[in-house]
Amino acid sequence: MALQLLLAGLSHAREPLAPIQLPQTVTPEMLLGKQLFFDQTLSADSKTNCASCHLFNHGGSYPKDKTPMHDGSKSRYNSPSIFNLSQNYPLGWEGQLISMQEQMHSLVDQQVKMGLSWSTIETRLQQQPEYVERFAKLYPQGITRETITQALVTYEIALTTPAPFDAYLLGDTNAISEDAKLGYELFKRYGCVSCHQGEKIGGNLLQKIGVIEPYAYDPDDSSLASLGRYNTTGNKADIQVFRVPSLRNVADTPPYFHDGSVSTLEQVVSLMSRHQLGREIPETDIKLIVAFLNSLSGSPHPKLMP
Ligand code: HEC
Ligand code: HEC
Question: Which of 136, 233, 239, 295 is the most exposed place for a label (fewest CB within 10 A)?
Answer without folding.
Answer: 136
